[in-house]
Design a protein that fits this description.
With 453 residues, this protein is of the alpha+beta class. The protein has one domain: Cytochrome p450 (Orthogonal Bundle), CATH 1.10.630. It contains 17 helices and 12 strands. It has a 5-stranded mixed beta sheet. Strands 4-12-9 form a 3-stranded antiparallel beta sheet. α6 crosses α7, α8 runs antiparallel to α10 and α12 crosses α15. The termini are far apart.
Length: 453
């Protein structure tokens, strides 16, 4: 049993941090080629991490999640989402909050959201003009933002809705490049000197978002309308075992967590899906044939069960992980994982990227091949776009439903082509990874099919 940190990267910690911010995928790829699928990195001013790209080791971690502090390991995100976010909780408080938040994202509630997702998509796509070039990620941002506003916040009109839309977009766009994202990792840049500094601008917008969300929460509390089906109303109605509801601060921070976890990630994944579908005519043809085979059956939940559509979404999530790694996990006491003995306060960080590009799991991993998901079931430690263990993303079912229905709505009604003249690469966008340039597309015509809703 080895007790030292495995395969420590020897380059200066400042250089490692620069590489992590600039291109975490390439940094991991180079390190894994040299050191294998378990190695240690030191990020200057941030901390030391053991990167794990071995599925067996990751399964061992998931099986022992109670032995880690995970919320405490996510401190980097606190300035954005607040201290009352589920992401920053551990132990009993994490279990309580997760139980309160779970119902709106599963079961019958999803069916109620499905038609709304289709309507939002059609409303935005109907504005396209033949021959017009557009950026897929920007359009998908509009779709996913409307989904958040209408389905999660319960807002579809009024002054507060009109104020939140541009404010949320401008706030999220403040970290739209590796350079601008660096303020999330470099604490000396996190100085609030008003609108003179990027951090001051970010905090100012955050305060404006807080005020608008608080006003919405206050108004909902006053109305006490039990019939509303939006996520916020359901969160407000939820009670724990002692009859306690979530506080305004908890509600507000959880809404921001859902915004960051659901809006940015879904719009990015959809833009990658449109990119690959329109780079591969045979995949587009198969998808359209599958959608056409439904005929007049326009039940969104049945569309979401289509096997090839599902496989395309799964392969997109495999090939383009929105996060380069899973939530870090800090050992509470010494623990044995994969033949290593890790001391207390060691931070382990499972790598989505390294697992999803293992040739033994995914032959020709750099190729987009949806079929690989039609003949095989992968374990929770082999395929982990939504995390795993006690921290699996609560909204994974809604995110997958949104992906499938947006793709189905667009592909059944519109003919698009990619206008990218060279391969699109991933770049850092805040804590996430997104396509450089956002994927440029063009509408060339409409398809004659019945709407799917």
């Amino acid at each position: 049993m080895l007790s030292q940190l495995p395969n420590s990267i020897t380059s200066p910690s400042v250089w490692q941090l620069i590489n992590w911010i600039a291109d975490p995928i390439e940094f991991q790829r180079r390190c894994s080629q040299k050191y294998g699928d378990i190695f240690s990195i030191r990020l200057s001013g941030v901390g030391s991490y053991v990167i794990i790209g071995n599925p067996q080791a990751i399964q061992e971690i998931f099986n022992q999640d109670a032995k880690f502090d995970i919320g405490r390991a996510n401190e980097l995100a606190k300035p954005l989402i607040g201290q009352n976010s589920l992401m920053l909780m551990d132990g009993g408080r994490h279990r309580r909050e997760r139980k309160l938040l779970m119902p709106p994202f599963h079961g019958e509630k999803l069916q109620a959201y499905a038609k709304q997702i289709c309507l939002i998509t059609e409303q935005i796509a109907s504005q396209w003009q033949v021959g017009q070039t557009f950026v897929a990620r920007s359009v998908m941002q509009k779709v996913s933002l409307e989904v958040i506003l209408q389905i999660v916040f319960g807002l579809s009109e009024g002054e507060r809705y009109q104020q939140l839309k541009p404010l949320l977009t401008s706030w999220l766009d403040m970290t739209d490049s590796p350079l601008r994202s660096s303020m999330l990792f470099l604490r000396f840049l996190q100085k609030d000197w008003g609108m003179w500094t990027p951090w001051g601008q970010m905090k100012q917008r955050q305060r404006q978002v807080h005020d608008l969300l608080q006003a919405e929460i206050t108004e909902k509390r006053a109305k006490q309308d039990d019939k509303r089906g939006d996520v916020l109303s359901l969160m407000m109605a939820a009670r724990d075992e002692t009859g306690q509801a979530m506080s305004d601060e908890e509600l507000r921070d959880e809404l921001l967590t859902i915004l960051f976890a659901g809006h940015e990630t879904t719009s990015t994944t959809l833009s990658w899906a449109f990119y690959q579908i329109h780079q591969n005519p045979d995949i587009l043809e198969k998808l359209q044939h599958e959608l056409d085979s439904l005929g007049d059956n326009n039940n969104p939940m049945e569309i979401a069960q289509l096997p090839y559509l599902t496989a395309v979404c799964q392969e997109t999530l495999r090939m383009y992980p929105v996060l380069p790694v899973l939530f870090p996990r800090i050992t509470k006491s010494s623990i044995n994982i994969a033949g290593y003995k890790f001391d207390a306060e060691t931070t382990l960080m499972p790598s989505i990227y390294l697992v999803h590009y293992r040739e033994d799991l995914y032959p020709n991993a750099k190729q987009f091949k949806p079929e690989r998901f039609m003949g095989r079931q992968y374990s929770a430690a082999e395929y982990l776009p939504f995390g795993g263990g006690s921290r699996r993303c609560l909204g994974y079912a809604l995110a997958q439903l949104e992906m499938k229905l947006v793709l189905a709505t667009v592909l059944s009604k519109y003919q698009l082509v990619s206008v990218e003249d060279k391969p699109v690469k991933m770049q850092r966008r805040g804590f996430t990874l997104a396509p450089t340039g956002g994927v440029r597309m063009m509408m060339t015509g409409k398809r004659q099919m019945a709407p799917i809703f």
